[in-house]
Design brief:
The structure is a single chain. The protein has 8 helices and 10 strands. Helices cover about 35% and strands about 20% of the residues. The chain is globular and about 50 Å long. By secondary structure, the chain is an alpha/beta fold. A 5-stranded mixed beta sheet has the order 3-2-1-9-10. It has one domain: Metallo-dependent phosphatases (Purple Acid Phosphatase, chain A, domain 2), CATH 3.60.21. α3 packs across α5 and α7 runs antiparallel to α8.
Amino acid sequence: MATLKLLIISDIHGNADALKALLGSVSGWDYLWVLGDLVDYGPEPHVVVDLIRDLKPDTVLMGNHDYAVAFKTDCRCAPELHELSEYTRVNISFKLLTEDQVGWLKTLPKVRRAVLGGLRVYATHGSPRNNLHGYLKPDLPVDEMRLALTPSMFAVRPNLVEADYVIVGHTHIPMNVGVNGLKVLNPGSVGQPRDGDPRASALSVDLNSEGLRWYRVKYDVDVTIRKLRSLGLSSDYVRWLEHILMSGSVLKPL
């Protein structure tokens, strides 16, 4: 049986070098879905936006950082990274993105539903319950996972989202978890992995065989770091960004 490949990428965060390396290492796909967070943290959010637009993916969703840039609001991201997020938004994203690019970010949808190869696929950046800011982590207790997979916050008897696959980003951690017949997947992060492996991460789903494949692609992180250093940022924030890129860990360096 021929393959029918859905390639899923997320959380590029201005890291054009990681994105280019990943796309150069993955063979052809039938569908390309991008789950958001193109901007903040990395040195080239403007390049990433143009690369994604040129690729013409079948789906590009809005992430919480895209929303924060587009509408000049708080990202409501993890507390341990909030300070870094706000700093890079003001000192990188707002300075480098054009008015046209920001306008395009405003148009991105928060949810995509589709039937592909006979499978019902639901995708969002965060979670069905909170599209922009909800976290679906692999170690989430089952009851909390089920709640996050209910799309209505007001239903008396909330039901899980109707899908075969729920695909999310936001955590930067690859995931494959089964919940009441749902397959919950996360491709990990292209530009800022946070699972201890700094290589760019992506996921492909063979919609015919339901086979999964995670890609981990090494790129020249030193080039990305040199670009960060050229932006005239505070040295403390640059060291923090370097640490994340080199270690795949969010812990702030001492």
